[in-house]
C-alpha cells in the first residue's frame, strides 16, 4: 500500500455557523453532502471533493493531540482574497516564497486553525 492523495482535513469548531461562514465566504468552499452523523458538522467541497470536514458540538481539547501546524490550499486571485480578508477584518501575513516566488498568505479561522493559501508566482503583488 502507498499513499496516493490527500483526502481531507478535519477541524474542530466552537461555532459551526461561524466556521462555515469563514470557509465558504472567505475561502470559497461549498457546503455539500455529509452523512447523518450523531453530532453537528459540515463537509466543505472544492468541485466534487469534500476536502474539509468541520466537527462541532464537542468540547475543544485542552491539550490538543498532534503536531499539525497548519493546512494549505492552492488558490488564485490574490488581490480578491486580500480585499475579502480586509472586508471581514481578518488579519493575515503575506510573503513571497524565495526560490519558487509563489505568494503565501497566512490567516486563522474563527477557532484559531492556521490556514495557508498559496497563489501562483505570476500574480501581482496586491494593493494593500
Automatic annotation (TrEMBL):
Annotated ranges, domain VOC: 5-120
GO molecular function, one term: lyase activity
Coiled coil: none
UniProt cross-references to Pfam families, sorted A to Z: Glyoxalase (PF00903)
Keywords recorded for this protein, A-Z: Dioxygenase, Lyase, Oxidoreductase
Name of the protein in question: Catechol 2,3-dioxygenase
Amino acid at each position: 500500500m502507498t499513499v496516493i492523495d490527500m483526502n481531507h482535513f478535519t477541524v474542530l469548531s466552537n461555532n459551526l455557523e461561524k466556521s462555515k461562514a469563514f470557509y465558504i465566504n472567505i475561502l470559497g468552499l461549498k457546503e455539500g453532502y455529509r452523512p447523518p452523523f450523531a453530532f453537528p458538522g459540515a463537509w466543505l467541497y472544492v468541485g466534487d471533493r469534500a476536502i474539509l470536514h468541520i466537527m462541532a458540538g464537542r468540547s475543544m481539547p485542552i491539550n490538543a493531540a498532534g503536531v499539525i501546524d497548519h493546512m494549505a490550499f492552492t488558490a488564485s486571485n490574490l488581490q480578491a482574497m486580500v480585499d475579502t480578508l480586509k472586508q471581514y477584518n481578518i488579519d493575515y501575513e503575506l510573503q513571497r516564497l524565495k526560490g519558487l516566488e509563489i505568494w503565501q498568505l497566512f490567516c486563522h479561522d474563527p477557532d484559531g486553525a492556521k490556514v495557508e493559501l498559496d497563489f501562483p508566482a505570476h500574480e501581482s503583488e496586491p494593493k494593500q
